[in-house]
Amino acid sequence: MIIKSNLLKDISPTDLDLIKKIDNDHFPFPWKETNWHNSAENSNYLCFYDPKCRGFAIYLLSPLEKLAHLLKVVTSPESRGMGIAASILNASYSHFRMLGVERCMLEVEVSNTSAIGLYLKQGYNKIHLQKKFYSNGADAHIMEKHL
Ligand SMILES: CC(C)(COP(=O)(O)OP(=O)(O)OC[C@H]1O[C@@H](n2cnc3c(N)ncnc32)[C@H](O)[C@@H]1OP(=O)(O)O)[C@@H](O)C(=O)NCCC(=O)NCCS
């Protein structure tokens, strides 16, 4: 599966509209237009997505810390269980290794079993339980993967 990678600011308007639609329709905490706007002005936001825009992942890079923070990964419901999220994340690790990134981290709601299953299979480890991390009061696992 070919996965595209681009700085958020360099994604074509057509692709970005599809990505925003998946985010709005299927991500538990979709970004508002101001989030997209602000992130597009920062060249440390990187997006990986499949050319048919069935899914995407966005990371914020911290080059000084050699860290990539996974902010969101989502696939459209009709495309789940087909390995698309795994392909997107695998493509990101290859890219990050070339950039000298040494680890990835993320937060995930403790009840999100599909995402936790994905991250464990990807080699992430739970390193901390952050109480009341989300605006709805839910706890989050902080997870980390060394590249
Ligand atoms: C989590 C999510 C991105 C997984 O996407 P996907 O494309 O279906 O995942 P894949 O098909 O690549 O699955 C890869 C692995 O993840 C795990 N996984 C995926 N769905 C799972 C589920 N429902 N339950 C348990 N593990 C699951 C499995 O280990 C799977 O490997 P396997 O198929 O060999 O068993 C998708 O369910 C989603 O978009 N959820 C809503 C958005 C979200 O919650 N994102 C994470 C927020 S932190």
SSE map:
Layout: E1 4-7, H1 13-26, H2 33-40, E2 45-49, E3 55-62, E4 67-75, H3 84-99, E5 103-109, H4 113-121, E6 125-130, E7 140-146
Parallel strand pairs: 4-5
Antiparallel strand pairs: 1-2, 2-3, 3-4, 5-7, 6-7
Bound molecules: coenzyme A.
Short description:
With about 150 residues, the chain is α+β, with helices and mostly antiparallel strands. It has helices at about 15-25, 35-40, 85-100, 115-120, and strands spanning about 5, 45-50, 55-60, 65-75, 105-110, 125-130, 140-145. It has one domain (about 5-145): Aminopeptidase.
Keywords summarizing the entry:
147 residues; alpha+beta; Aminopeptidase; 7-stranded mixed sheet; 7 strands; globular; binds coenzyme A
Give the DSSP E fraction (strand runs of 2 or more residues). 25-35%
CATH uppermost class: Alpha Beta
User: Low-confidence spans: pLDDT under 50, at least 5 residues?
Assistant: none
Helix content: 25-40%
CATH architecture: 3-Layer(aba) Sandwich
Structural class by SSE content: alpha+beta
Strand order of the largest sheet: 1-2-3-4-5-7-6
> What is the fold named in CATH at topology level?
Aminopeptidase
In this structure, how is the largest beta sheet organized?
7 strands, mixed
Radius of gyration: 14 Å
- The helix-strand sequence is EHHEEEHEHEE
State the helix count: 4
Number of strands: 7
Distance between the termini: 21 Å
- Can you tell me the number of structural domains? 1
Give the CATH H-level superfamily: Gcn5-related N-acetyltransferase (GNAT)
